[in-house]
Amino acid sequence: MNKEKLLSDLHFKAVRSSGAGGQNVNKVSSKVVLTFDLNSAQGLTDEEKLLLETKLTSRLTSENILILNCDEDRSQHKNKEIVIKRFLDLIQAGLIVPKIRKATKISKSAIRKRIKFKKNLSETKQLRRKPDIN
Known about the structure:
alpha+beta, 5 helices
């Protein structure tokens, strides 16, 4: 993953933010919309693209475009920084390959110990019973 090439592939769009804020909301375009085309990304290898495509399927559009929004701050520059940080965190989390689980076998001594414990418990419970006199 090449961060500089990835950041050059990003497209930003400033939009008017919704919600409270008075006249400032109507005048200033502080919301930032980040779009990233996964297919044409130059900072990723083909394997990384496939991995991200499988891991981020719910967040990608049908054309494999990732769209992120940020309208947390009143400043457009801060919103841009926040959305870039979110994007990089998302990409790094998506590129993590989970470790393959290796099947392990329970040792024979552990099996013997468990069966011995069960027999001892059974014996103590049987000793607690009233004697069966017929």
